[in-house]
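Please check both lines for our workbook:

___
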Amino acid sequence: MVSKAPQQDYSRADVRRQFRLTERQLKSWERESLVPPLESYSFSDLIAIRTILELRGKGFRSRNIAEAVSSLRRKLDDVKRPLSELRILSDGRKIAVQVAGHKMEALTGQILFDFEAAELGGVRDFPERKQGGDLLRESEVWFQQGLDLEETGAPVEKVLEAYQKVVELNPAAAGALVNLGTIHYRQRKFGEAERYYKQAIAADPSYPLAEFNLGNLYDEQGRLPDAFHHYKRTLALNPQYADAHFNLALLCERTGDTLKAVLHWKIYLKLDRTGQWAEIARRQLERLREATVIQSR
């Protein structure tokens, strides 16, 4: 069952102020189909804008980003909004995307190189082979096949089949469950995505990525108390999870909790002092400080 459309929470003026965009710049991105022409924006739209700004900060022109986005839509049928559904980043002079633990060039689909093990997190984690070793080995083979299918842009049905086979053989395969959840999230099948993320958490309660993804899902749906809970769970498992602090700061601003927003912006800036997101965090922190000073007068 597909969930209802997410709540739109950020006005056009809010987005322009937060990211320091001009109306002309926003309209230009709309013409290039980088962002939709809206008067109010969802959490996913903010993620897309953050990604554009990060790539622009690396020297890429809007036209280059639009070409990469168009290519990703053609190669990955299940992805409708690459800028918010995928992790897009720069690799030298190329725009790359993280797909199943690898960097793939957005335009050509060429695999560039593996991410460091730390980037992969629990995606490749399997329980120790205490019993049923043959089944676990077979589940790992299917998991690798799922990764390979994702990397090559295979039909989403084939990818789902591989990951579902993993779970049949090894119900505790949290990485496969998270990947299943993410595929359904991209398809905006939020009910199914929620179910898989919850199963991943049940299979591995120490897996912060599953908690974070579930928080993002609830944030997208406008289920703010649930989003807040799972972002906090992410940080309980990994206090250094910078993206969770960033999203919590935004969430606290939306709910009027200025003090907590300031706290999470400060922590985020300790974890990430450079880059586009750090600049956004500094601006938001300064804006909150100025608002607090004005109110106290």
In short: Residues 64 and 168 are 42 Å apart (CA to CA). The two ends are 51 Å apart (CA to CA). Strands lie at 10-11, 40-41, 87-91, 94-99, 102-105, 111-114.
